[in-house]
Give the backbone structure.
Amino acid sequence: MTNIDPKWGNWASKPTPVKPEDIVRTEETEVLVVGAGIAGMSCVLSAAEAGAKVTVLEKTGYYAARGFNIGVVNSSLMRERGYYNDPDEVAREWIKRCGNRCDERVVRKYVTRSPEAMDWLLEIITRPEYGVRPELQGCLYKGETYRELIGSHIFYDGPISRAGKIGGMTDVVECMYVESQKYGVKYLFNTPMEQLIVEDGRVVGAYGRGEEGLIAVRASKGVVLATGGIDGNDEMCADLCPIANKTAEKLYWPKGGNLGDGHRAALWAGADFEDLPFPAMLHPQAYRHPSWCFLFVNPSGHRYMNEDNYLQARSLGVIKEGVKYCWSIFDSDWREKVPATLPYGGGLFWGNDYAIGRSTEFQLAGEEAKLEQGLKGGYAFAADTPEELAGKMEVDPAVFAETFTRYNAMCAAGKDEDFGKRPELLIPLDKPPYYAKKIAVALLAVVGGVRVDAESRALTPEHKPVPGLYALGNTAGGRYGVDYPLMIPGNSHGTALTFGYLLGRALAK
Ligand SMILES: Cc1cc2nc3c(=O)[nH]c(=O)nc-3n(C[C@H](O)[C@H](O)[C@H](O)COP(=O)(O)OP(=O)(O)OC[C@H]3O[C@@H](n4cnc5c(N)ncnc54)[C@H](O)[C@@H]3O)c2cc1C
């Protein structure tokens, strides 16, 4: 076995070539999709609906789905409700937030074609037999610097929800799965792809390991890698996305679905990765709490950032301290004080994930329940004085009391001398008991991968297409480059849907 790059771990070692006698059976198809997550399933259904013969290799026993939203730039639902985003503005802002390290052509494709992809999806999932009820997410950061736009679609009442299980994205992908069966898509579950079949430089299929042995699936129109991210593979993360291993928790499930199999297979077949390190999607939710924007302190009792920030930045703030958690500090008037902050900030974990039109009371009730859980679970504390609170947090009381007093003094003066928080958000903490709750970072996904062009073709280090090979979703790069921009929440699913839909149509031609 040869390692593709000596500075990388064993994960990059090329597998032993398959011998003809290893193969128990060969199947023929037109489009082979590897991985049945939102990216793969969008491609599967789109290609099958457009007339292609499609086969799916899936490592686990079922499709994969998690989370609640899909973010797109515009849609018919948004039009009906009077919302419109200017695609050019979205693209410019997206590229800026990604430090210009994303691929502008990839971003432009998402920005201009995501409305079509969402309308395609909505038409299917709202049919009477599926009965999904889409809504728009209203929980957005409203300040100018990190403003989040309406565009995130959330889903209620689908077949999985009606069966009493957790719906949202599972409802959406269930509809795709059922619908795809009408077109005779062949699913090979519990059949992980081990490597690609490459002949004369062209990818012509993949080997999957089924119960009976190694199956060769040959595809005449293309092989699509949609095997998700590398998040569950600590060794790959160490080399390609070190920050992913600094989080308090990795949330992906089903476990083992995200080991970077597609990334490795693409590399072995001659594709390149986008520039390193890969970006990661981080949420400050490891203790399942809103963190709001009052006073954040590190375990040494010092303030470390402007608390007025969106959720990715609030996560990075903790990681940059080199610790597993920091503290969000607030007082007993938080029920009155949080709503006053929402016109200036808000968004996920600073206001719950709720549909447009849901009341602030609904949101606060949810946050109250989470605070109670924290107090019972030992990751939130209450005390009558800053010193007593510091004792419970195991922070030096003198240091914490000084931070607390200084913060309140700056609030009273209306000027944050230390981090420049906007005056509207300088709200004194003056009503005991005071609270401290942990803020810790969860990794949702590593959202970087194989270098692709806007047609989702995998590219070589010379930026030439690897014939026959495509990558989607978190197996593909180009969308972000450096960080996960939340300007339209749910854009990881939104890009997976858009490129999956477009590639499916293109391959079926
Ligand atoms: C708890 C949680 C909540 C989230 N919520 C949201 C949200 O609301 N909105 C949002 O935009 N993003 C959300 N994300 C991120 C989002 O889930 C991912 O970015 C996205 O699903 C990736 O989709 P995908 O199709 O690329 O990969 P996946 O959904 O990971 O699908 C990959 C599939 O490939 C299969 N596979 C892997 N290796 C092989 C192999 N060798 N052979 C065959 N099959 C293989 C896997 O089993 C899996 O089925 C959330 C993430 C987590 C962990």
In short: The pocket of flavin-adenine dinucleotide is lined by residues 34-40, 57-60, 64, 66-69, 192-193, 226-228, 251-252, 257-258, 261, 281, 444-445, 473-474, 490, 492-493, 496 (CB under 6 Å). The radius of gyration is 24 Å. The longest strand covers residues 213-225.
